Each structure stands twice: as C-alpha cells, then as structure tokens.
Amino acid sequence: MDAVTQAPLLKMEHISKRFGDNPVLQDIDFQTFPQDVVCIIGASGSGKSTLLRCINRLETPTSGEITFHDTSIFSRNFNLSAYHAQVGMVFQSFNLFHNLTVLENCMLGTRKVLKKSKEEARTLAIKYLTKVGMAPYINAKPAQLSGGQQQRVAIARALAMEPEVLLFDEPTSALDPQMVGEVLQVMRSLAKEGLTMIIVTHEMAFAKDVSTRVIFMDQGVIAEEGTPAQIFDQPQNPRTQEFLSRFI
Ligand code: ADP
Ligand code: MG
C-alpha cells in the first residue's frame, strides 16, 4: 500500500456521548480507511446509531474528536453540506420525500448541494438508479414502491452525490424478510466496487461476507474488533460470544 491509501478517511478518537446522565458512548476509537467496509454489530441500545449520528454530525459528542481527511468535523467554519455530500447516510426508514418522484428524490441533493445543472443531476440520478435496479421506476412516487424498492432508491440518492463514504444504519431492519436480499445485494456490489462503508447491521451472514472489519459494540463501548473471521469464528470476548449465539 502506498502512503495515500494508508491515510484514514475518518478517524474517531475517544468519542464519548452522554444523554443526561446516560453514558451512551464511552471512549470510542477507530479509523476507516479507503475501501474499508466496517460492519458495526451489537444489541439494541448499545449506541450504534448514536455513533453513526456523531460521525454524520447529527449528534455532537460530549467529548472526543472526529476527523475527515485530517480535518475536525467540529471545527469552526467546517463546511457541513460539503461533508454530507462526501459522507452520505442511508437510514432504516428510507427518509424519501413522499411528494417527489423517484427521479426528483435522486436529483435533489446534487442540484441543491452540489449545484449540478438539471441535466447533470438527471444523468447522475439515472446512472445510480440503474445501478440499484430502479431505473424503470423514475416517475413513481415512493408510496407506490415496496420497502425494498424505496431503500434501493434511498441508496441511489446517496450514491448520486458520489460520496467517499456511505454510512448505513440498519438499512434492512424495516423491511419485510423477502425484501432484505435485494437491498443486501446492492450493498454487496458496492462493497465489491470498493466503496468505503460503515454499516450497522443485524445481518450476520452479510457482515461476515462483506466486511473488512467488524466492530462489536456493547453498552457504549467497542467490546471487540477484528476481521470477520476473528469476530464470527473465534470471538474472544464472552459478551461477543453471547451476542452471536443469538443468531445461530
Ligand atoms: P442502538 O442503535 O445500538 O440501538 P442507540 O444509539 O439508538 O443504540 O441508543 C443508545 C442509548 O442512547 C439508548 O439507551 C437510547 O435510549 C439513548 N438515546 C439515543 N438517542 C437519544 C436521545 N436523543 N436522547 C436521549 N437518549 C438517547
Ligand atoms: Mg440503532
């Protein structure tokens, strides 16, 4: 590896977050390198969403530092909309605009944030809708689509910004079981193409398959971290073992 690929894209240092006297995150430390696919697993309430929300600056940590390309995302004059274009997020609940068509949903960010022309925005939207298999639905409204289709549109919308990193917070948890596969398939192909991703998921087979690194969170701390083989085949921490035993 050369020096460029060794520099972390995102660096989380000693992140702690309290809500009142609830210590939700405690001393979280990890880095994400280009082409990493980091899967974050752990029980409900362990702080996974809060961590992603801190990375996306939807929450501010009580203490600690997050840098993107060596710049603090909390620094004064930080360009938040540029950051949100470079570090996109896909939510459990899709968060599409229901009054807009599929195409309009996928053009909004590139028009408003990246200031693309209508034509450029349309080209990007169609490129990424095609990638997720949703090009035939450009004129549909979200309510006319299944959950799996809506989530694929949400992924296309994020991809249209051509981000460096995509964050996913349980992207398949709100889906009927028969729709989980189509969304995971899209994410698998993005991983294969080398998109850097941080994915909170309960899909253990998927995590084992696609991730370069797995982080197990337990009660606000990183209880164990390693390669998928280390975490899924030889977990060292009894808490990891106990958590994973629920999925067998
Ligand atoms: P996970 O995503 O792993 O299920 P969360 O990050 O959503 O965990 O939540 C971790 C803890 O933080 C929970 O105890 C939750 O109740 C608490 N929490 C999350 N968001 C807030 C908030 N905005 N205000 C107060 N408590 C919160
Ligand atoms: Mg969550």
How would you explain this protein's 3D organization?
With 248 residues, this protein is α/β, with parallel strands linked by helices. It is built from ten helices and ten strands. The strands form two sheets. It has a six-stranded mixed beta sheet with strand order 6-7-8-3-9-10, with helices on both faces. A hairpin with a 2-residue loop joins strand 4 and strand 5. Helix 4 packs parallel to helix 6 and helix 6 packs parallel to helix 7. It is globular, with a radius of gyration of 18 Å. The termini are far apart. The site of magnesium ion (MG) has 4 residues, from helix 2.
Provide mean pLDDT, rounded: 96
Ends distance: 37 Å
Principal-axis shape equals globular
**SS-derived structural category:** alpha/beta
Largest sheet: 6 strands, mixed
Which structural traits does this protein have?
six-stranded mixed beta sheet; four-stranded antiparallel beta sheet; 10 helices; binds adenosine-5'-diphosphate; 248 residues; alpha/beta; binds magnesium ion
Short note summarizing the structure:
It is found in: Cell membrane. The protein is of the alpha/beta class and 248 residues long.
Note the topology.
Layout: H1 3-6, E1 10-19, E2 22-32, E3 37-42, H2 48-55, E4 63-68, E5 71-72, H3 80-86, E6 87-90, H4 102-112, H5 118-131, H6 147-160, E7 165-169, H7 177-192, E8 196-200, H8 204-210, E9 213-218, E10 221-226, H9 228-233, H10 238-245
Parallel strand pairs: 3-8, 3-9, 6-7, 7-8
Antiparallel strand pairs: 1-2, 1-4, 4-5, 9-10
Helix pairs in contact: 4-5, 4-6, 5-6, 6-7
The structure holds adenosine-5'-diphosphate and magnesium ion.
